[in-house]
Amino acid sequence: MKTLLISAAAAASLIPAAAMAQSGQADDAGATRRLEPYVGVMGGVHNFDSETGKEGIPPVGYKGRMVEGVAGVNYNVAGPLVVGVEGTASKGVSGDIDWEYGVAGRAGVKAGKDSLIFGKVGYKWVNFDALGPDSPDFHGTTYGAGVELSPADMGGSAQSSNIRLRVQADTLGNFRSIRPMAGVVAKF
């Protein structure tokens, strides 16, 4: 799994160069295909089930509030279809979780002027503060869905906006946790 993380970090380091190279490239229909890098800050809570021995999750119903940084890139495939990849790093601010980090692929559909409805699948590592300073990391597949709302679609007069309000919900393992998050992302 460490190889996956190192590979994701290496790929993420190439995003700025790829964005410059792809910017303004037109497809056969004349529509512009381009990469849209973004960063964001989110907050929320992660609640784990109390069932024992499922997908490597500890045998207690841990939970915690956290703040999360997110960075990624979207690629406009054709029309309203978007695919992308993102990385996350979260720090627990209260409760049982010390930190989380992960990487996920995304697919979505643009809605309105500049909003996005998306689903994502990836892999996440979690470290629990409640288990002590040298505790192992727990990990598993993560699934989620969400929406990014643009001010241009919420009654604003602008034709588009680089800022979006993001609301999402994720789960870890075989639906053994719920993780609602909300925040702001900015594309550049």
Main attributes?
mainly beta; disordered N terminus; Porin; eight-stranded antiparallel barrel; 2 helices; Opacity protein; elongated; signal; 59% strand; 188 residues; two-stranded antiparallel sheet
Any low-confidence stretches, pLDDT <50, length ≥5?
A: 1-31
How big is the Rg? 18 Å
Estimate what percentage of residues fall within beta strands: over 45%
> What is the overall number of helices?
2
What is the averaged pLDDT score?
A: 81
- Our measurement of the CA-to-CA distance between the termini, rounded to an integer number of angstroms, reads 30 Å
Number of strands: 10
Most strands sheet: 8 strands, antiparallel, barrel
CATH topology: Porin
SSE-based structural type: mainly beta
Percent helix, as a range, is: 10-25%
* Strand arrangement, major sheet: 3-4-5-6-7-8-9-10
Broad shape: elongated
N-to-C series of helices and strands: HHEEEEEEEEEE
* CATH architecture label: Beta Barrel
Kindly provide the name of the CATH class.
Answer: Mainly Beta
How many domain regions? Answer: 1
Outline of this structure?
By secondary structure, the chain is mainly beta.
Please explain how this structure is put together.
The chain has 188 residues and is mainly beta. The chain has one domain: Porin (Beta Barrel). It has helices spanning 2-13, 15-22, and strands at residues 25-26, 32-33, 35-48, 63-78, 81-95, 97-111, 115-128, 138-149, 163-172, 177-187. Strand 5 and strand 6 form a beta hairpin. The radius of gyration is 18 Å and the shape is elongated. The two termini are 30 Å apart. Residues 1-31 have low confidence and may be disordered.
